[in-house]
Amino acid sequence: MLLALVLNLLSCKKANDWEVDASHQRLFKSLKFTTGVVGATSVEINYTKTVAAQKYIFEFSKDSLQFAEIVKTVEILADTLTPFAPSTIPARVEYRTLFDNLDGLTEYSVRMKGVNTETGEESNYSQLYFKTAAEQLFSKLNIGVDHIELYWPVTDRVTHVSVFEPVKNTELQKITLSPTNKADGHLKIEGLRPGTSYRVAIFNEENERGAKTVKTLGIAGGEMITVNPGDDIPTLISSAVAQGKTNIVLVFTGGKTYDLANLLIPAGISNLNLTGTSDAGGNYPKLNLLGLQLTDLVLGEVVFENLEIYANGSSFLISQDKNGASVAAYTFKNCYIERLGSGVVRLNNAVTVKGINFDHCRVDKIGGYGVVNIGGSTASVDSISITNSTFTDLTTQLMDVRVAVGKIVVGNCTFYNQNAAMTQLLRFDTARLPFSFVGSNNIIAGTNSGGRINATSYDHAGFALNVSFAGSYRTNELQIERTSRDFSEITIFSGTAEDLFVNPMNKDFRIKAGNGFGGRGTAGDPRWFE
């Protein structure tokens, strides 16, 4: 019996001492595998360490976890990685890696495995799905009456540009990019119609890398009249009207100066557009224009765009006080307007205007009536919109409105008063207050030439109109004259205009880096965003 027991003990093995199937000999895969920031052409992958892995292999495919075709493979050596979140437990050490040169607005799957290059052992795959955002490759657009110029960072990952009708997205043109286009990062599309909306997109093969919907200058179906310095503009317009052309587009050439004095527009027109083209250096035409006078009492739109207007101290650019006069809108787009002694637009008496609009403009040194002045009590105005613009050294006020306008919007504007003083930003008649006011995302800065300022010309309490400046900021050197007329819901920046802007004295209103400004990228004129 003793012999049998000895033999039995000798024949026993340890309980867990079995052979390992080579097909299951592998590394443990990462505990964490997620996306961080997903951009238009890049993705950040967050993952934990695969213990004993000497390299990581990432494989990308354009599908949803099928990995039918690998379009991108990246190998990363473990000893080149810097931990984002170190840990004393190896399997919890976290890395973050950015992968770029992806296509925008594209579905991707990515999988990763760790590999021990000495033993050949690998981990199982960790995998995930993500979709990149839409890419915006266009950095700048110059829009003309019959053309659009596109600019983008130089890259060889572009093949063509397409022009679409924006509503149905019907392709109108497909332009193959030449080696010169690619080297310059530039294309000029010609032969377009004035006053017409287009969607333009740039592609790398089938992948859209950027798109913009834009509208050419001028009036759709309008008669384009190219104006040279010294031309008799009233005669040019009268000649077009005699031929039945009543929608007039006056085209002024970039880089040229036009001495127009007081410009009288003859009778017979339906809509009027004064537009400027830019020259090779990006310069717009300069108009020495003391005022614009309309012969017709009833008119459609009057539009100024892409112009530098120098009034040289004259009273108003537009002044309409004839009873029964009616205009659909006075609109200023991408204009520089300087030195009007009283104001830009003045309406008085029984005048009807649907809209007064300033967008992407720069306005400097305007007199005490305000940029917009609506007097009397019988004028009718549906809306006033002042957006995405910069105003410097306004005297007395931005606007003086004595009638009940349907809606007034002052949004994303930068105001800087250093050499002139405003008493208030808004002067309203309390018996005829606007029905609605929006004053969001503005910046109001400067010393106001030492003068104290109010948001409005009246105490807010007791009136139903909500005059809010939520999302707006003012610098701390600006002194408020009366608390009851302060800028409601505005945020005070703890610094002066010099602390806030790069160079306000020279009209550079980009925001300084590192100054803690909370409205960076949201408040003020967007042209100063970086």
UniProtKB/TrEMBL annotation:
Domain of life: Bacteria
Gene3D superfamilies in alphabetical order: Single-stranded right-handed beta-helix, Pectin lyase-like
Protein name listed in UniProt: Uncharacterized protein DUF4957
Organism expressing this protein natively: Sphingobacterium siyangense
